[in-house]
Amino acid sequence: DSGVTQTPKHLITATGQRVTLRCSPRSGDLSVYWYQQSLDQGLQFLIQYYNGEERAKGNILERFSAQQFPDLHSELNLSSLELGDSALYFCASSPWTSDEQFFGPGTRLTVL
Amino acid sequence: AQKITQTQPGMFVQEKEAVTLDCTYDTSDPSYGLFWYKQPSSGEMIFLIYQGSYDQQNATEGRYSLNFQKARKSANLVISASQLGDSAMYFCAMREAQTNFGNEKLTFGTGTRLTIIP
């Protein structure tokens, strides 16, 4: 158990819908990262938050957004969902001084 | 250009044998970090080992060791005495120099599926 929690574990929805994925980092970790793992794109970095502020953006679609709240949990919002958004979405956290990122169990999103 | 290259899509290894998973990387930053993660069929990402670009010695963690050859830009994972539970996908990843405070995103390779044969 990495100490990073993600909910829900599985999510099945339809095209055009909007969903919210939630992540609670390890206690004390200020950085939260979101990654997407799909069959065709592999593991890709989406976005990073550090202590509530956006720090880096990767290949994140405009239909996707994220935020980190004062209690350091983070949410990834996916809207106008398409079939191609079906993937495993990981959240990871790290202390700012650490080289290691701790991954949560992931949320498997299926868009039908 | 690919920043992380894993050229072995799949490997089959006899139980108790040692196995080497290849990883080459591309960066012009003098400061970077290299990681290996294991992803079993259940899906979670498990951190295995880390090597910093300035580390003088190869990293080791139990049965895992990282064969770091800086001049060749390779960071191969060696698993000694393989076990059935080692069957999984293995990903090599790199963190490049922080361009701003707190930015430590990882770039992943495409992975190697390792199957241990009894």
Q: Number of DSSP helices of chain B? A: 0
Radius of gyration of chain A: 13 Å
Compute the gyration radius of chain B: what is it?
14 Å
Helix content of chain A: under 10%
Order of helices and strands of chain A: EEEEEEEEEEE
Strand content of chain B: over 45%
Structural class computed from helices and strand pairing of chain B: mainly beta
Termini separation of chain B: 38 Å
Average pLDDT score of chain A:
93
Average pLDDT of chain B: 92
Question: How would you portray this structure in words?
Answer:
In chain A, strand 9 (87-94) and strand 10 form a beta hairpin. Chain A has no helices and eleven strands. By secondary structure, chain A is mainly beta. In chain A, 0% of the residues lie in helices and 54% in strands. In chain A, strands 2, 4, 5, 6, 9, 10 and 11 form a seven-stranded mixed sheet that branches. Chain A has a four-stranded antiparallel sheet with strand order 1-3-8-7, with no helix packed on it. The model of chain A has no long low-confidence stretch (mean pLDDT 93). Chain B is mainly β. In chain B, strands 2, 5, 6, 10, 11 and 12 form a six-stranded mixed sheet that branches. In chain B, a hairpin with a 2-residue loop joins strand 7 and strand 8. The radius of gyration of chain B is 14 Å and the shape is globular. Classes of the chains: A mainly beta (112), B mainly beta (118). The interface between A and B is medium-sized, with 29 and 25 residues.
